[in-house]
Design brief:
Chain B is 70% helix and 0% strand. By secondary structure, chain B is mostly helical. Chain B has one domain. Chain D has one domain: Helix Hairpins (Orthogonal Bundle). The chains are: A mainly alpha, B mainly alpha, C mainly alpha, D mainly alpha. Strand 1 of chain A pairs parallel with strand 7 of chain C.
Chain lengths: 301, 230, 1050, 118
C-alpha cells in the first residue's frame, strides 16, 4: 500500500489553521451579533481564554462510558468532516484526506458527531439533554433535506460526486459558480444552512433560556473543551463544503477565510433579524419553503 | 299476507313450468323403447304374466329393494323414536262397541287371507307384495281399533321383517351365482306363463316383500298405538 | 368382489341387525363395524385395481338383463374412490360414535349402515329413478340419524331434521316430475341412455318438455348440495347433529351428491355447465362469506362444507375446459375437503363448548393441534395437500381459457375461507383454555385416520400432479421429520436443525449463481446463526421446530426452484411455516392472522400471474421461471403487475404493510430476527427474479418499474416516519424494516446496475443489523418484561453487550461512516445519479435523516437515560441470545471493511443484465463513474482520530469517578424518581405535531373498512336464515325460480 | 284423459305446496305434503297412460305375442309403486318427528322451532 505519509502532518496543519481561524471568526461574529443587539460583546480573544481554561480543568466525575465518548464522537466528527473534504482547490497539501471518499462520505459524516453527541448527552440521564436531542434531531432531519437535494442537484449538474471535480467545474470566473449556474439548488441549500448552524431562528435546540444549554447540559471541563473545539471546527468544515459546492471553492487560504466568514455572517445576519421558531414551526418552515426549492432544483437541473 | 303473496308468486312460477309440461304433453302412440322391450320379452325371459310385477321385482328389483329398505328404515326409526317416549300408562279402555269387536274378529282372517292372496299372485294379477302387505297391515289396524290395549310382540314383527329382508337379499345374491345377476328371478324354473308356480323367484320375492311390508306397517302402527297420548 | 356386494352387505347386515335381540348391542355393533369394513375393503380392492391397471369401468348388471332395461351399476376409478371415501367415513364415524350407537341400539346402527349403503348406491347406480330411490333412502336415513342424534337432548336437532324433511319433500316432488317427463321424452331411465339420446338429438316436439324435465331433475339434485342461499336447513343439521354424523353428512353425502350432479350433467350436456358453474361459484363465495361471522364451530364447518361443495360444483361446471383434468382437480379438492371436514367434525366432539374460542382446550394436546393444522391446511389448499395441486391446475386452466372473472371469484372465496380457518386456528392456539379436552382413545382413532389419509392423499396427488412431489423433497422432509422428534429436548432439535441447514448448504453451495448464493447464505447459514439464539429455550418447545424448519425449507426450495410450480409451492411453504412461527408470540393472534391473509392474498396473485404466463406460452408441463422473460404484450405487464404486488405483500410495501409491525413485534425473541432479518428477503428475492426475467414493463403507457420506484420511496419514507412514533421497541424495529424494504425496492426499481447492487447491499446489511437489533431488543425485553421503551432506561451498565450490539446496529442502519450502512448509501447516491426519474428520490432523501430519529430513540430510551428501580438487579441477556449478536457485530465489521469480498462477485453477475455502470474494485478503493470510496481508509482515519481524542480524554480524566444516577441538577431541583426524569414517552412530540398528518392510519382504516364491509354484508345476509323451516322452503323455491329464470332467460 | 289426470295431478301438487307453504301447523304441513305426493303419483301414472290400450298383464285378454300393440306403458306403473311406498315412509318419519317435537315443546307451530339460525 503506497500511502503518502506526508498527508498526515498536512492534515494536522489544516486542522490547526481552521481551529485558530474558527476561534477568531466565531468570536467576531458573536461580537457583531452583540453590537446589533446594542450590547458590547465579548473580546475577540475570549474563545482562547475559555479554551485554555477548559482544557486546563480536570474533572473527577463521569456519567458513564457513552458520556465519556460523546465529546470524542463529536470532535472526531468535526475533524473528520474537515479532513474528508479538500480545503484548498488545486493544493496537494490541503487536499487533506479526501482520497478516502467523495461528497457522500462528507454528507454522511456530518451525522457522526451528532449521533455521538446525542448518545453521550443521553447517558448523562439529564432530561433536558434528551429533550434537546429530540428537538435537534427533529429539526436537523428536516433541515438537512433541502441540502441533500441541493447536493444531489449539483452532483447531477456536474455528473460527479467528487468534491474536487465539482470545484474544478466552477473555476473560470464568478459566473461559473453554482450560485449562478444552479441558483435554485443554492437557495435551497442556503435555507438549509440556516437550520444547521444552530443560530436563531433555529436554535431552540440549544436554547439558552428554557433549558440550560440543551444537550451539553452536563458537560464541563475537558469534555466541554472538546466540544467547544468542535463548535469552531464544525461550522467551518461545513461551510467549506458549501463553499466548494456552490461558491467556487477556494484556491488559497485568504479566499477561504473570506468566503467562510461571509457565509457564516449570513446565518448570523438572519439570526439577529428573526425571532426563534419552535421545533414544529421550523420543520414546517423547511417543508414549505426550502423543500420545494430543492425539488425544483432537482427537477430542473 | 306478504308471505302468502310470495308463495302465490312462487307457485305461479312453478305452475307455469307445470303448465308448459302439461300443454306440451302428447301421449305416446306406440310404446317407447323400454316399454316395448318389456312387452316383448317379459313373458319369454321372466315368465311373469304381470309385466308391472316383472319390472318391479326383477328389472327394477334394485328400486324395490330400496323401497323395502325405506319402509324398514321408517319402521325402525319410528319404533326407536316412539320407544324412547314414555310408555303408555294403563288406562281404562274406551269401550269400542260390539259391532267393531265382532266385525274385527270376523273380518281379520279374511283380510289376512286376501293379503296373502294378493302377494302370492302378484306375478299374475294386479297387486303384489306392497299391496298385499298393506292389506295385512290394515287387518292389524282393525285389530288395534277393536282392542287398543292389544299388545303385539315387537320381537316377532321384527323377526319376520328381518328374516324376510335377509332372505330377500340372499335370493338376490343367489341370482349372481345361479343366474344372470343380482335379483335375477331365473334361479328357479320359470314354469308356464300364468301358473301360480311360474316366473321363477318372483312369487317368492313378492311374498317376502308382502311379509316384510306387512310387518313393517304393523310395526309402525303398533308403535304409534303404544305411544302415550300427549 | 363385485361392487354389488357393497349394497348387498349393507342391506343384508342392516336386516340382520333387526334379527338381533335388543340387548345384544355389542354384537350388533360388531356386525355394523364388520359390514362397513367389508364395504370399505371392496371399494379399496377396486380402487387398487383401477389405479394399478387403468382398466375401464365395469358395468354390473342386475336381473340378468342388459341396460337400459334393467338397472345397472358401474364401478370405475371415480366410483371406487368415492365409495371408499364414503365407506371409510362411515366406518370411522361408527367408531367415533361408538358410545352413542351402543346406547341407541341396533336399529340406529342399521340406519347408519343403510345410509352408507345408499350413498354408495348413489355413486354406483346408472339409473335415474334408482338414483331417486337412493336419495330418498338418504333423506330418511339422515332424518333418522338426526332424530336419534339429538346431541344435547334439547330438541334442536329434531327441529333441524324437520326443516330438512320439509325441503326434501319439495325436492323429491320436483325430482319425480322431472324424471317422469324425462322418461317420457327419451323412453329410458338409464342415465347413459338418456345422455345418448340427448346427444343424438331429441325429437323437436319433445325438446321443450325434456329441457324443463331436465331442469327439474337438475335443480333437485343440485339442491342436495345445499347451494347458497337455499341451505338454511342443512346448516341447522350441521350445527345440531352429532358430529360423528355431521362428518358423514359433510364428507360422504356431499361427495355422493356431487357425483350425482356430474351424472346429470352427462345428460344435460354443455348447455348446463354454465348453470352448474354459476350455482357453484355463488355458493362458494356466499357460504364462505357467511362463515366469516359465525361463532359456532359446527355451523362454521357447515358453511365451509357448503362452500367446498360449491367449489367442486364450479369445477364440474368447468368440465368443458378442464377436460381430462377435471378428475384430478375435483378429486383433489373433494377429497381434501371430505377428509378434513370429517376430521374436524370428529375433533369437535372433544371440545365441550360450541364456541370457536372453546377450541383452545386442544392446546394441551399437541397431537390434536397437529390434526387441526393438517385439516385446516387441507381445506385452505396449502402444500403438500391435494387441494394445492388441484388449485394449481385449476387456476392454470382457467387462466389459459381466459375465464378470469371466475378465477378471481374462486381465489377471493378461498381467501375468505383461509381467513376464518386461520382465525379459528389463532383462537385455538392463543386463547385461554377454559375447559378440559374430553376424549377417549377410541374416539381419537378416526381423527388420526383422517390425518393419515390427508397426508397419504397429499402424496398421491403429488405423484399424480406431473410436478415434483413435494413430499419427496429433501428440505421439506427434513422439516417434517421434526414433527416426529417433538418428544426430544429443544437443544437436541436445535443442534439438528443447525447441522441440517449447514450441511445442506455445504452440499449445494456450488450450484448457485452469485446472486442466489447470497440469498442461500442468508437463508441457510444466516438461519443457522439465528438459531443459535434458540438454545436459550428450555424444555421441548413443541411446535417451534417444525414451523421454523418449514419456513427455512420453503426459503431453500425457493432459491432452488427453476419452474413456477416449485417456486409457488415453496412460497406457500415458507408462508405457512412463518405463520406458525409468528403465531407463537404471546399476543400475536390478530397479527399472525393478518399476516397469513395478506400473504395468501399475495400468493394468489402470484399464482394467477404464473397461470397467465403459462397460458401465454405454448403448453408445457412445467413453466420455467426463466421463460417469464419470453412473455410479450399484452399479457406481460399484467403478469408483472400481479407478481410484483404479490411479492410486495411479503416485503410489506406501503398499502399492504399493516400485517408486519404486529407480526414481527409480537413474535418470540428468536423468531423476530428470523421473520424480519431472513424471511423478508424471500420477497426481495421474488422481486429480483421478477425484474431479472421480465425487466421493464409498461401498462397503459405507465412504466411499472417507475410505479414501483414510487412505492419503494413512499414505503421508505412512511415506514421510517411511523417507526419514530412507536413506543414499543420491537414495533419500532418492525416499522424500520418496512422502511428498509422500501429502500431495497427502490433500488431494484431503479433498473440500473448500481440500483440492484444497492438492493443486494440492503439484503445483506438488513439481514445482519436487523437480526442483531431484534435479538438485542428481544433480550432486553426478556429481562425487563416489557417492550415499552419508556418503561426501560439506563440499562447500559447492566446489559453492556446488548448495548454494544444496538450501538453498532444503529450506526450501521443510519448509514453513518465508517460502518457498512454507509456503503449502501454511497451506492445509493451513485445509483440515482444515473436514474431517469428524480421526484421519488426526494422522498428517499427525506427518509434518510428520519432514520436517525427512531434509531436514537431506540438506544436512548432503552440503554441511556435513567435506570428504573425495578430493573436494578437485571442481568445481561442470556448467553445464547448474546452470542449471535456478537457474531453479527463481527460480520458487520467485516462487511464494512471489505464489502468487495461479497459484492464484487455480485457486481460482476449483475453486469450480465446491466453492463453499464459496474463498479471498479481495483485496490482498496471502490470507484464508480461518479465517485469513489475507500472503506479501509475511512475506517483507519476515523479510528485514528477517534482513538487519539479518546486516549487524551481518558488520560486527563483518569481520576474521574462515575457519579450516582441522580447526581444531576435541573430546574433547581435534584430529581429522585427515574420515572419522572427519564424523558422517553412521546419522544418526538414536535415531529408528530409537524408531520403527524403523514402517518394517520389511512391504510389500516382502509383494510378495516374492507373487513367490516365483508362482515356487515355477511351479517345482513345471515338474517335470511331466520330458523323457520317454512321460510327455508321458500328459499328453495326462490332458488329454483331464480335459476330457472336465469337459465331460460339466457 | 291423460291430460285431465295430469292437470289434476299438477293442481294437487300446487295445492299441497300452497298448504305446506302457508300453514304453520306441522300436522297440516304433513297433510299438505301427502296431497302433493298424491298429485305427483297421479302425474306419473298419467304419463304412462295410452289411449285405447289395456293394463300390462298378459292373460287370456292379452296374448304375449301382440302385447306390444295392446298394453300401456308399464314403467310408470312400476315407478309409481315405488314412489308411493317412499312417500309413506317419509310421511311416517315426519309424523315421528312431529311427535318428538311436540313432546319437547308442546307446540305444533313451525315458527316455534327457530332457535337454530344465521
Amino acid at each position: 500500500m503506497d500511502f503518502d505519509w506526508m498527508k498526515i502532518p498536512y492534515a494536522f496543519l489544516t486542522v490547526f489553521i481552521v481551529v485558530n481561524y474558527g476561534f477568531l471568526m466565531t468570536a467576531l461574529i458573536q461580537k457583531i451579533g452583540a453590537r446589533a443587539g446594542r450590547r458590547y460583546g465579548i473580546p475577540i480573544w475570549q474563545n482562547y481564554v475559555d479554551m485554555i481554561k477548559n482544557y486546563g480543568l480536570r474533572s473527577s466525575i463521569t456519567h458513564g462510558v457513552m458520556f465519556y465518548l460523546g465529546p470524542v464522537f463529536r470532535l472526531s466528527g468535526g475533524v473528520g468532516l474537515l479532513l474528508f473534504v479538500p480545503s484548498i482547490y488545486g493544493s496537494e497539501m490541503f487536499s487533506n484526506l479526501s482520497f478516502a471518499g467523495d461528497l457522500i462520505l462528507a454528507l454522511y459524516f456530518i451525522f457522526f458527531g451528532t449521533l455521538g453527541m446525542a448518545l453521550g448527552a443521553a447517558e448523562s440521564g439529564h432530561p433536558h439533554a434528551a429533550i434537546g436531542i429530540t428537538r435537534g434531531l427533529s429539526q436537523v432531519s428536516m433541515a438537512e433535506l433541502p441540502f441533500a437535494m441541493a447536493v444531489f442537484s449539483v452532483a447531477l449538474q456536474y455528473q460527479t460526486l467528487s468534491v474536487t471535480e465539482i470545484v474544478a467545474a466552477q473555476q473560470g470566473g464568478i459566473m461559473s459558480w453554482t450560485l449562478f449556474t444552479n441558483p435554485l439548488a443554492v437557495a435551497a441549500a442556503m435555507l438549509s444552512f440556516l437550520g444547521s448552524m444552530m443560530r436563531p431562528p433555529f436554535d431552540v435546540v440549544i436554547a439558552p433560556q428554557e433549558i440550560p444549554i440543551g444537550p451539553p447540559t452536563e458537560y464541563h471541563s475537558s469534555y466541554l473543551a472538546l466540544m467547544q473545539t468542535n463548535r469552531v471546527i464544525f461550522p467551518v468544515a461545513k461551510i467549506v463544503i458549501y463553499m466548494n459546492l456552490f461558491f467556487g471553492g477556494a484556491t488559497n487560504w485568504p479566499e477561504l477565510f473570506l468566503k467562510v466568514f461571509l457565509l457564516y455572517l449570513f446565518s448570523a445576519f438572519v439570526g439577529v433579524c428573526f425571532p426563534r421558531f419552535r421545533v414544529e414551526q421550523s420543520i414546517r418552515w423547511f417543508l414549505v419553503w426550502a423543500v420545494p426549492l430543492g425539488i425544483l432544483s432537482i427537477v430542473l437541473v | 299476507m306478504i308471505k302468502r303473496l310470495i308463495a302465490l308468486a312462487l307457485l305461479a312460477a312453478v305452475g307455469s313450468v307445470f303448465a308448459t309440461l302439461l300443454f306440451g304433453y302428447t301421449p305416446d302412440a306406440v310404446l317407447n323403447l323400454t316399454a316395448r322391450y318389456y312387452a316383448e320379452h317379459t313373458a319369454a325371459d321372466l315368465g311373469a304374466a304381470n309385466i308391472v310385477t316383472a319390472i318391479v321385482v326383477t328389472y327394477r328389483g334394485l328400486d324395490t329393494l330400496g323401497e323395502v329398505t325405506v319402509l324398514f328404515l321408517a319402521a325402525s326409526i319410528v319404533g326407536l323414536v316412539l320407544a324412547q317416549g314414555t310408555q303408555k300408562k294403563p288406562r281404562t279402555p274406551v269401550p269400542v262397541g260390539e259391532l267393531l269387536t265382532t266385525g274385527a274378529r270376523f273380518l281379520l282372517p279374511m283380510i289376512l287371507l286376501l293379503g296373502v292372496y294378493v302377494f302370492v299372485n302378484g306375478h299374475l294379477t294386479p297387486g303384489g307384495g306392497f299391496q298385499g302387505g298393506a292389506i295385512i297391515a290394515s287387518g292389524i289396524l282393525l285389530l288395534l281399533l277393536a282392542d287398543p290395549l292389544k299388545h303385539f310382540s315387537h320381537g316377532l314383527i321384527s323377526a319376520i321383517e328381518s328374516v324376510a329382508g335377509v332372505i330377500y337379499v340372499s335370493i338376490g345374491l343367489a341370482g349372481v351365482f345361479l343366474a344372470g345377476g343380482f335379483l335375477d328371478n331365473r334361479i328357479l324354473p320359470l314354469g308356464t306363463l300364468g301358473d301360480l308356480a311360474s316366473a321363477g323367484a318372483i312369487p317368492l320375492i313378492y311374498s317376502l316383500i308382502g311379509l316384510k311390508v306387512g310387518a313393517e306397517f304393523a310395526s309402525i302402527l303398533a308403535s304409534l298405538s303404544e305411544t302415550e297420548e300427549l | 368382489m363385485s361392487a354389488l356386494y357393497i349394497i348387498a352387505v349393507g342391506l343384508g347386515s342392516a336386516f340382520l341387525l333387526g334379527l338381533l335381540n335388543e340387548r345384544q348391542r355389542g354384537l350388533a355393533y360388531m356386525i355394523t363395524l364388520a359390514a362397513l369394513t367389508i364395504m370399505s375393503a371392496i371399494s379399496a380392492s377396486w380402487l387398487l385395481i383401477f389405479a394399478a391397471t387403468g382398466a375401464h369401468p365395469i358395468d354390473i348388471l342386475t336381473a340378468g338383463t342388459q341396460p337400459p332395461f334393467a338397472i345397472n351399476l358401474r364401478m370405475g376409478l371415480v366410483e371406487s374412490a368415492l365409495t371408499l371415501l364414503i365407506n371409510l367415513t362411515g366406518l370411522l364415524a361408527a367408531i367415533h360414535m361408538g358410545d352413542s350407537l351402543l346406547a341407541k341400539g341396533r336399529r340406529a346402527m342399521a340406519v347408519l349402515v343403510i345410509a352408507i349403503m345408499a350413498l354408495c348406491g348413489i355413486v354406483l347406480t346408472r339409473d335415474i329413478f334408482n338414483l331417486f330411490v337412493f336419495f330418498e333412502l338418504i333423506v330418511i336415513a339422515t332424518g333418522g340419524l338426526v332424530l336419534l342424534s339429538d346431541a344435547d337432548d334439547n330438541g334442536r336437532a329434531v327441529s333441524a331434521g324437520f326443516k330438512y324433511l320439509i325441503v326434501s319433500q319439495f325436492i323429491s316432488i320436483l325430482l319425480l316430475i322431472g324424471i317422469i317427463f324425462a322418461y317420457h321424452a327419451t323412453g329410458t331411465l338409464n342415465i347413459d341412455g338418456m345422455a345418448e339420446i340427448v346427444g343424438s338429438g331429441i325429437k323437436p316436439e319433445l325438446a321443450t318438455a325434456f329441457s324443463l324435465a331436465f331442469f327439474l331433475m337438475f335443480i333437485a339434485v343440485v339442491a342436495e348440495l345445499k347451494p347458497f342461499p337455499a341451505n338454511g336447513w342443512a346448516l341447522d343439521i350441521y350445527e345440531s347433529a352429532h358430529p360423528g354424523f355431521s362428518a358423514i353428512f359433510s364428507a360422504a353425502t356431499g361427495s355422493a351428491a356431487l357425483f350425482a350432479v356430474d351424472k346429470l350433467l352427462l345428460i344435460g350436456g354443455a348447455d348446463w355447465l354454465p348453470v352448474a358453474t354459476g350455482i357453484g361459484i355463488v355458493t362458494f363465495v356466499g357460504a364462505n362469506l357467511l362463515a366469516l361471522p359465525q361463532t359456532n364451530d359446527r355451523r362454521l364447518l357447515g358453511y365451509s362444507s357448503i362452500a367446498q361443495t360449491g367449489l367442486v360444483l364450479t369445477i364440474l361446471g368447468q368440465q368443458d375446459i378442464l377436460g381430462e383434468h377435471t378428475l384430478f382437480i375435483a378429486g383433489g379438492l373433494l377429497f381434501a375437503h371430505a377428509v378434513a371436514k370429517a376430521g374436524l367434525y370428529w375433533l369437535s366432539d372433544f371440545v365441550a363448548t360450541r364456541s370457536l374460542t372453546g377450541w383452545a382446550a386442544l392446546q394441551e394436546r399437541p397431537l390434536l393441534v397437529f390434526a387441526f393444522v393438517t385439516f385446516a391446511a387441507m381445506l385452505a389448499g396449502l402444500p403438500p395437500f391435494p387441494g394445492f395441486y388441484a388449485k394449481w391446475e385449476l387456476v392454470h386452466i382457467l387462466a389459459a381459457e381466459g375465464r378470469l372473472a371466475l378465477l378471481a371469484l374462486i381465489l377471493f372465496g378461498a381467501l375468505v375461507e383461509a381467513g376464518y380457518l386461520f382465525r379459528w386456528f389463532g383462537y385455538l392456539i392463543k386463547r385461554e383454555p377454559d375447559q378440559e379436552v374430553s376424549c377417549n382413545t377410541v374416539q381419537i382413532i378416526p381423527v388420526f385416520a383422517a390425518v393419515l389419509a390427508g397426508w397419504a392423499l397429499g402424496f398421491v396427488w403429488g405423484e399424480l400432479s406431473g410436478h415434483s412431489n413435494l413430499l419427496l423433497v429433501l428440505p421439506l422432509l427434513f422439516a417434517l421429520a421434526f414433527l416426529l422428534l417433538e418428544w426430544a429436548p429443544a437443544w437436541f432439535k436445535n443442534t439438528l436443525a443447525i447441522g441440517g441447514m449447514v450441511t445442506f448448504f455445504l452440499q449445494t453451495y456450488a450450484e448457485y449463481d452469485p446472486l442466489r448464493l447470497i440469498f442461500a447464505v442468508i437463508f441457510m447459514i444466516g438461519g443457522a446463526v439465528t438459531l443459535l439464539a434458540s438454545y436459550h429455550a428450555h424444555g421441548r418447545r413443541i411446535g417451534f421446530y417444525p414451523a421454523a424448519m418449514l419456513m427455512f425449507a420453503g426459503m431453500i426450495l425457493l432459491i432452488r426452484a427453476t419452474d413456477t410450480f416449485g417456486f409457488f409451492a415453496s412460497w406457500e411453504l415458507l408462508t405457512v411455516g412463518s405463520y406458525f412461527l409468528i403465531l407463537r408470540g404471546k399476543h400475536s393472534e390478530p397479527h399472525a392472522l393478518s399476516y397469513i391473509i395478506f400473504s395468501l392474498g399475495g400468493a394468489f396473485l402470484i399464482l394467477t400471474a404464473f397461470a397467465l404466463a403459462a397460458a401465454a406460452v405454448p403448453p408445457a408441463p412445467t413453466f420455467a421461471i426463466a421463460s417469464l422473460g419470453e412473455l410479450v404484450q399484452p399479457v406481460a405487464p399484467w403478469v408483472f403487475l400481479l407478481l410484483a404486488v404479490g411479492f410486495m405483500t411479503k416485503t410489506a410495501a406501503i398499502g399492504v404493510h399493516i400485517w408486519l409491525p404486529g407480526a414481527h413485534a409480537e413474535a418470540e425473541t428468536d423468531v423476530s430476527p428470523m421473520v424480519s432479518g431472513i424471511l423478508l428477503k424471500a420477497g426481495l428475492y421474488g422481486l429480483f427474479v421478477l425484474l431479472m426475467t421480465m425487466g421493464k414493463q409498461s401498462l397503459y403507457g405507465v412504466e411499472l418499474t417507475y410505479v414501483m420506484l414510487w412505492i419503494g420511496a413512499i414505503t421508505a419514507l412512511l415506514g421510517n416516519l411511523m417507526a419514530i412514533f412507536q413506543e414499543d421497541a420491537k414495533r419500532l424495529l418492525a416499522y424500520s424494516s418496512i422502511g428498509q424494504m422500501g429502500y431495497a425496492m427502490f433500488g431494484l426499481a431503479l433498473m440500473n446496475h448500481l440500483g440492484w447492487l444497492l438492493a443486494l447491499m440492503f439484503v445483506i446489511n438488513h439481514y445482519i443489523y436487523k437480526s442483531m437489533l431484534f435479538l438485542s431488543v428481544g433480550g432486553v425485553a426478556k429481562r425487563t418484561g416489557t417492550r415499552e421503551m419508556y418503561k426501560m432506561g439506563g440499562l447500559i451498565t447492566l446489559m453492556p453487550l446488548s448495548f454494544i450490539a444496538t450501538l453498532i446496529g444503529i450506526i450501521a442502519v443510519s448509514g453513518v461512516p465508517p460502518l457498512s450502512g454507509f456503503g449502501g448509501r454511497w451506492i445509493f447516491y451513485n445509483a440515482i445519479l444515473t436514474a431517469d426519474s428524480r421526484l421519488p428520490m426526494v422522498l428517499i432523501f427525506l427518509a434518510g435523516p428520519i432514520a436517525f430519529l427512531y434509531l436514537f430513540r431506540l438506544i436512548h430510551t432503552i440503554f441511556l437515560g435513567q435506570l428504573k428501580d425495578e430493573h436494578r438487579r437485571i442481568k445481561e441477556a442470556p448467553f445464547w441470545i448474546i452470542l449471535p449478536q456478537m457474531i453479527y457485530v463481527a460480520l458487520l465489521m467485516v462487511v464494512a471493511v471489505v464489502p468487495g469480498m461479497v459484492l464484487r462477485h455480485v457486481d460482476a453477475y449483475i453486469s450480465r443484465f446491466f453492463p453499464e455502470g459496474a463498479l471498479n474494485w481495483e485496490g482498496m478503493s471502490i470507484t464508480s463513474q461518479f465517485g469513489y470510496w475507500n472503506p479501509v481508509a475511512i475506517m483507519i482515519i476515523v479510528g485514528v482520530i477517534f482513538m487519539l481524542l479518546f486516549s487524551w480524554l481518558l488520560f486527563v480524566n483518569r481520576k474521574a469517578q462515575k457519579v450516582k444516577q441522580f447526581n444531576i441538577v435541573f430546574s433547581a431541583e435534584r430529581p429522585f424518581r427515574p420515572e419522572t426524569t427519564h424523558f422517553a414517552w412521546n419522544f418526538f412530540a414536535p415531529y408528530r405535531k409537524a408531520m403527524g398528518f403523514l402517518v394517520q392510519p389511512f391504510v389500516t382504516r382502509f383494510w378495516e373498512t374492507v373487513t367490516d364491509l365483508l362482515h356487515t354484508a355477511a351479517d345482513i345476509t345471515r338474517r335470511l336464515y331466520n330458523g323457520n323451516g317454512q321460510i327455508y322452503a321458500f328459499h328453495f323455491l326462490v332458488f329454483v325460480v331464480a335459476v330457472f329464470a336465469m337459465k331460460m332467460g339466457i | 284423459m291423460a291430460h285431465f289426470a295430469m292437470a289434476t295431478g299438477f293442481l294437487l301438487i300446487l295445492i299441497g305446496a300452497w298448504g305446506a307453504l302457508t300453514n304453520r301447523n306441522l300436522l297440516r304441513m304433513i297433510i299438505a305434503f301427502t296431497i302433493a305426493d298424491s298429485g305427483v303419483n297421479l302425474v306419473i301414472i298419467a304419463v304412462g297412460y295410452m289411449h285405447g290400450r289395456t293394463a300390462p298383464i298378459l292373460d287370456s285378454a292379452v296374448a304375449a305375442a301382440d302385447a306390444v300393440q295392446r298394453i300401456i306403458d308399464p314403467v310408470p306403473q312400476a315407478l309409481v309403486l315405488t314412489a308411493i311406498v317412499i312417500g309413506v315412509g317419509v310421511t311416517a318419519l315426519m309424523l315421528a318427528y312431529v311427535y318428538r317435537l311436540y313432546e319437547k315443546r308442546r307446540s305444533l307451530d313451525i315458527g316455534d322451532f327457530t332457535e337454530l339460525k344465521g
